[in-house]
Amino acid sequence: MHNIVYMDEFHEGDLKPLEGLRKYFQLIKEGIPEFFPKSELNECSCPACSQSKIAAEFTKYGMRYIECESCNSLWVSPRPSEIALIRYFEESKAEIFWRNEFIHMTDRKRKEKILQPWIRWITESTQEYYANARSIADIHTKQPVYLDELQKIERFQEKVLISPFLSQTVLKEHPSMRVFQEPAIEGLENQQLDVITVFDGLGMTADPFALLSAIFSALAPGGLCFLTTTLISGFDLQTLWDAAENIHPPTRLNIFSDTGLLTLVQKTGFECIEFSTPGVLDLEIVAAEQQKNSSNSIPRFIAYLLKHRDENTHKAFQEFLQAHRLSSYGRLLLRKPT
Amino acid sequence: MSKLRCGIVGYGYMGEIRKRVIDSMHELELVGVVETVVKKRESLQDCPVFETFDQLLEETFDVVFVATPNSYAPELCIRSMDLGKHVFCEKPPGRNLQDIQAIAEAEKRNPSCKLMFGFNHRFHPAVLKAKSIVDSGNMGKVLSLRGLYGKSGGKNFPQSWRNDRTISGGGILLDQGIHMLDLFRLFCGDFESVKCFTSHAYWNLEVEDNAFVLLANQKGQNAIFHSSATLWKHAFRLEITMEEGYLFVEGLLSKTGSYGRERLTVGKRQFEDEIEALGNPAEEIFYFDRDLSWELEVKAFVQSIMNNQPIVVSSSTDALKVMEIIDQAYKNAQH
């Protein structure tokens, strides 16, 4: 297993403009009681290691986040069912705003800084680990621009899209892709695929183990799964904890720790080729949160580092986080054993 | 398919590693270990132990792992192949060019026997990744190589058989530096021109404790290598400069971790304004956590035997070619 360190240069605001983000969060707050009545939520144990002992807990937008005493993953319990979640991602005002307006505010930067590196990661790693791969499927993407990039990759003869919540407009723009407008687990049934990508999908599913198992079954022996997810073991989330804006339901129902995520991966039978945390925004997010809300106390050392050290030191600190898998943006490359 | 029955000759540092790998592979079965040192023999409780190779030969087996000091390796390899055994021999492949030539002759007269050498660094994760990038062609051709491989030596270093010329055949260049020279060949192929300086900088040894090797080939590629037993901080660094960027392999996953975290740095050449870019492009660094090199190389060997395919990595040709470089280096250093 390896991890990569890559210090690209961009800012949180380049990808998530503040005004848009505020509106998105407001819509989430309004949508949660409407889509997820408390009586329909289900209790669950840690989605990574199945343990139930609680180390800490807090409430966000009316939902309870629990920290696992065993693997330190963070999860929402009680939580909505997969059906309720899909309806939310399809119909809620927050998600409609996200895919029709918010995501397009930063298309260019997102494409350059997030999507193209993903494409490079997929093409280079597929070349290295599964050169004969012919098919690729994407699951539950919330980023239509990603499909534009995916469509351009020439090395895959067959491109599949599995998502119940993409608009007809988006689907029409990608005619070369075989589309299954179904939840991932159903859409993966009876498939035989070489490569599957799940960008941020693991955080928002009611049952991550079931999703990973379905991916495992759908892959050919030696097949690859490219996965990104938010990690609670990352610096900004550990520092800001319940004040972190990136912790919010229902997009982030499962926020794994590095240990928890590896436990989950091992349970499904995958071999982990790469586990990296190539995030570049951890320190910047903490700094921004401190500026925005000075009543949020952050550790004195971090405050000192932010105030009394220059950009180069901040960059070196972020690089340290990456090198030791301590950023909150995680990416994994998994392989189904032959 | 039935298991390949194996024997190990020599139960030092490498013999122990080979035993661990053999024990872990379902394709292999260990029939016994030959070791001359009583204490080491006594430490082995879970398999038959022999004092001599002849005693091992009374058993029925297919494969010999030769993990002895250099002077014993040629005879063991040759005898084993003449008896129809497949041979996996640790590096270096003998003390000098004549030793490997004799081994290669034995291989020729026993075409059914597979012969592989323990150029283990080829299977290290950072090297494999670097090789994959080079082979992809995305970064153009290799222009040059620069290597540093060194250790500090400990209190008993001068007494080690590795520094007794009659047993080892050479100093740090042959013992440890051979790995780097083998990697130079992996990335650039053969080098026809070899220059070398050796020194006895610190340790009072009959063999060199430092070697500085300069190489060139007909493709116009140059390489420079410093092999040292006086690096008080253990170091492994291979720099591969290419047309479109560079790769640095640094650190090695090892039992003690003393060579540092194994990593590969990938930098792409930038065509920015020179005043602004200052030759400092953004880099991607791969850190590696698991060393499967021992398993991978034995697996490659076993697959060659089971599928009756030629040895393509760490073959006798690789061994012969790298020993030719070392032979030329030592000869050049004497002038």
Q: Would you kindly provide a written description of the structure presented here, covering whatever features stand out?
A:
The complex is a heterodimer of chains A (338) and B (335). Chain A is 44% helix and 20% strand. Chain A is an alpha/beta fold. In chain A, the strands form 2 sheets. In chain A, strands 7-6-5-8-9-12-11 form a 7-stranded mixed sheet, sandwiched between helices. In chain A, strands 2-3-4-10 form a 4-stranded antiparallel sheet, with no helix packed on it. With 335 residues, chain B is of the alpha/beta class. Chain B folds into 2 domains: 4-118, NAD(P)-binding Rossmann-like Domain (Rossmann fold, 3-Layer(aba) Sandwich); 121-294 and 323-334, Dihydrodipicolinate Reductase, domain 2. Chain B is built from 11 helices and 14 strands. In chain B, the strands form 2 sheets. In chain B, strands 8-9-10-7-11-12-13-14 form an 8-stranded mixed sheet. In chain B, strand 4 (63-66), helix 4 (73-82) and strand 5 (86-90) form a beta-alpha-beta unit. In chain B, helix 4 runs parallel beside helix 5 and helix 8 (172-188) crosses helix 11. The longest helix of chain B is centred in the C-terminal third of the chain and has 19 residues, at 316-334. Chain B is globular. Classes of the chains: A alpha/beta (338), B alpha/beta (335). The A-B interface holds A 1-8, 124, 127-128, 323 and B 125, 129, 132, 136, 138, 282-290.
Helix-strand layout with pairing:
The complex is a heterodimer of chains A (338) and B (335).
Chain A: E1 2-6, H1 12-15, H2 18-35, E2 54-60, E3 63-68, E4 74-76, H3 82-91, H4 93-105, H5 107-129, E5 135-139, H6 144-152, E6 158-162, H7 168-172, E7 177-180, H8 184-188, E8 193-199, H9 208-218, E9 219-230, H10 235-240, E10 254-255, H11 258-268, E11 271-276, H12 282-292, H13 300-308, H14 311-323, E12 329-335
Helix pairs in contact in A: 2-4, 3-4, 5-6, 9-11
Chain B: E1 4-9, H1 13-24, E2 28-34, H2 38-43, E3 49-50, H3 53-57, E4 63-66, H4 73-82, E5 86-90, H5 97-109, E6 115-118, H6 125-136, E7 142-150, H7 165-168, H8 172-188, E8 193-199, E9 210-216, E10 222-228, E11 235-242, E12 245-250, E13 263-268, H9 274-277, E14 283-288, H10 293-306, H11 316-334
Parallel strand pairs in B: 1-2, 1-4, 2-3, 4-5, 5-6, 7-10
Antiparallel strand pairs in B: 7-11, 8-9, 9-10, 11-12, 12-13, 13-14
